[in-house]
Amino acid sequence: MSKATNKREGHPVKRQRKERTKQQGKQSGRQKSILIQQQMSSLRKSRLLLMAFSLALGAAIISQAVFMAESVQRIFVEKATLSSIMPLLGLLLTVMALRTLLTYGNGKVGLHMAARAKTNMRAKVLQNLIQASMFSALQGQTGGKVSVALDAVDEADSYFSQYMPRMMEASIIPIVILVVAFTLHANTGWILLCTAPFIPLFMILVGLQTKNKSEEKYAQLAEFSGTFLDSLQGLVTLKIFGRVNRQQQEIERSSLGYRDSTMSILKIAFTNTFMLEAIVMLSIGIVALELAIQLLVYKSMTFHTAFLLLLLVPEFYSLLKNTGTAFHSGRTSMGAIRKVEQLIGESEQRSENSQPKKDEENSSHHQFLPRSSSTKSDMPSFIELKNVRFHYAPGSFALETGHVSIKPGEKLAIVGPSGSGKTTLLSLISGLLHPTSGEVCINGRPLVQINEDDWFKQISYITQHPYIFAGTLAENITIGSGRDEPRAEIEKAAERAGLTSLIALLDKGLDTPVGEGGRGLSGGEKQRLALARAFLKKPALILFDEPTVGLDLRTEQILQRSIAALSQQATIITVAHRLYTIQQADQIWFMSDGVLADSGTHQELLERVPVYAEMVQLQRTGGIA
């Protein structure tokens, strides 16, 4: 859960975040977004269609101005009758309708591009999260990842739906208008040419600041989402320990930080709009003044030409102004896209660090294919821990094992006082954690060099609180096998796990739905459901993390019988709390203060390790170990 920080602590964190986003902004300024390049490549046909629409739209804008100027010339200057200009007005209405359709078409193409790009990016994010290594998946806050996959991808919409169509229009239509302006009156063309650069220059200056602020906003949103999700998941714990008010303050701090980041972007947007309007109004005023001087003072220009130019000039600046607004939205979207890239990049980097090289994969792949039977020869031949050391952070809890091994088919128990590192050691053996130094080896090969998918097909890890998904009992059992299983096999696995009596009481049997997290099931029923997964999967290695803690004696006996049945076809490693349940283990490892202090059989440890003997005696007499 996120640690609550007071306001004084929030300031240096905020400064560090700002510095980090500034550095990311500088890096992103030096290279174009790879993710955007990929999307642009896949949207080549849509971009060509945008170009065609923009060219046609430019022709429609100029045609509309020409017909409008001609109509005004005939009515107010030449005093023509209404009937004589009806064909001209018909053409004008046709061109206006065509312009509306082309504008609508441009918008539809942009929306189509945005929808397709968001679908591709979200699929890439989800695929990356699914294919990421287990070690990578455990890093970071779940809420932050959800925020990126949903909110950040959605925010990328405006880049494709607004920014790209407007930029395509701005790269074609103003040039066409500029050519017409130079053709009709060179002075107007020069004024347009000299004033136009102020708009994109201002866009670039504001856009860079907007993108940096946007990245800061999404960092705040990810923090807020993670804090909020952590609080919801731990609400019961917070209430029990009276920490609700403190966590409420932390959520409020995160929420206010996100609000401040959002408001700073809105402030930039309002400033951007005001400055663009000021530049456009000033530029149009200069052109209008020059045209008025030429028309009224020097009388070197006809009314038709002056009016036509006066119609085209606002169109010219309006396109640039709209592009400025779209540029602001595009920069905001760029910040969101950077967060998506960052999530993908971090996940890929962690996965690369935790996955074997291709030549090592090829040589070890055949050793860890899905098993077709439960014979001993299919098990991992040998597990070794070669002077494994691990710590979560420098100066924190440290674990050390020395050189120990586990033979195939052995029943190993890991015991020791609370906080001695039993669960951490189990996570190292399973590959959920990577050693700080030393190696965990399988068949003589370091575990970090073995293909992760193949390795996890060989093991089952049953914790004190196995996760039950929202779905039916049958679906929760088959989730461990990774393949479609015959109904008979599912029923057999449920029976061997001791679920028969529970299923018999349910109207829908194995098709009975359960709530997320196993709502509606007791602790023992959840454990038996997890055991059913293992029976169906038939793994070579099964790891138990104190599976019977908190269960009543009868439920514990049922689980122990199921575990004994599983041990006939797999290597079993159990973190044990109740020591009488592991007295028949082939090996017992005794942990003390993070060190694997001794190993041997139950009788050997009774003779050699006084603390172990004391723990056994306390449990025999009803004391607490």
Automatic annotation (TrEMBL):
Coiled-coil annotation: which residues? none
Gene3D superfamilies named in the record: ABC transporter type 1, transmembrane domain, P-loop containing nucleotide triphosphate hydrolases
Per UniProt, the ranges with Basic and acidic residues bias are: 1-12, 347-364
Q: Which SMART domains match?
A: AAA
* Claim: Transmembrane is one of the keywords in the record: yes
Give the region (Disordered) as residue ranges.
Answer: 1-32, 346-378
**Entry's Gene Ontology BP terms:** cysteine transport
Q: What is this protein called?
A: Thiol reductant ABC exporter subunit CydD
The organism encoding this protein is: Paenibacillus amylolyticus
